[in-house]
Automatic annotation (TrEMBL):
Domain of life, source organism: Eukaryota
Domain Retrotransposon gag residues, every copy: 146-222
Pfam family, one: Retrotrans_gag
Residue ranges with Low complexity bias: 71-87
Record-given protein name: Retrotransposon gag domain-containing protein
Length: 265
């Protein structure tokens, strides 16, 4: 009667069927052994017992249906939880330029307070930062704010006056930097740099320091109208009829030039 592979919920149903068969057999035996007076009472008791067992069978069937629904709901919740825990895959950008490296993080220059010796270097560094970080400084307002954050003292007061007057100089970073150079840049340029170059002496400096200043002054004097070459400084043993261009200053070893004598530190 009982199948060993039956589920735990189906076993009580099979047991009820077995009990019903046993009761039917008992009723048949009692009908042959009992007197008719007691047989009606036994039959009524068996009928009531059968009704109770039928109610139990319906109850077990209802429990089986509820357990099946509960199992389906648990499976659905488990699947939803697993899908929610899996991290979403990031879509790769279709444009290769989006995957380009980030813009370089260049440290800002020191704040400028109006020193004429550092004005040009300050403006050059600002322009390099703007060129290397185009996304960060994509608008003029960002450039102006960055320049203003690096000003102090008289240059900052000058910028504040431009802002209060709604000057066009305060709306363009290139115009603002050009105006700062016009006001605060060192006045020694062109012919004056050439004059300093002619008076330049090595003195107690090393050859590296001497050549470095010579190259700087030579570059300053090489401007339209002043010629591209600079005469080497006097007192070096090099004839005044000989000239050394800026290109030669960068490509020639000074110690190998005939007539030039330098003292290494």
């Amino acid at each position: 009667y009982l199948n060993p592979q039956s589920s735990p919920v189906q076993l009580p149903v099979c047991a009820l069927q077995l009990v019903s068969s046993v009761l039917g057999l008992s009723q048949y035996k009692l009908a042959n052994s009992m007197n008719p007076a007691d047989l009606d009472q036994v039959r009524e008791a068996i009928r009531l017992q059968g009704q109770r067992m039928g109610g139990h069978e319906q109850l077990l069937q209802s429990l089986m249906d509820q357990m099946s629904q509960l199992s389906s709901q648990i499976s659905q919740l488990t699947g939803n939880q697993a899908s929610a825990q899996s991290p979403p895959s990031e879509p790769e950008p279709s444009d290769p330029s989006v995957r380009a490296t980030e813009e370089p993080n260049i440290p800002p220059p020191s704040k400028y307070s109006g020193n004429p010796d550092t004005c040009r270097s300050f403006c050059t560094q600002i322009r390099l930062i703007f060129d290397s970080q185009p996304r960060r400084f994509s608008c003029e307002s960002a450039k102006i704010a960055y320049v203003a954050s690096l000003l102090e003292g008289p240059p900052l007061s000058f910028f504040n006056s431009l802002m209060e007057q709604n000057s066009p100089l305060a709306q363009s970073a290139s115009c603002l930097l050009a105006e700062l150079k016009r006001i605060y840049d060192h006045p020694i340029r062109g012919q004056q740099a050439a004059m300093r170059l002619m008076r330049l002496r090595q003195g107690d400096r090393s050859i590296r320091q001497y050549v470095s200043e010579f190259r700087s002054l030579a570059a300053e004097s090489a401007k339209p109208g002043t010629g591209t070459g600079a005469a080497p400084p006097g007192g070096t043993g090099f004839g005044r009829s000989h000239h050394l261009s800026c290109g030669a200053a960068h490509s020639t070893s000074y110690s190998s030039v005939p007539g030039w004598s330098f003292r290494e530190a």
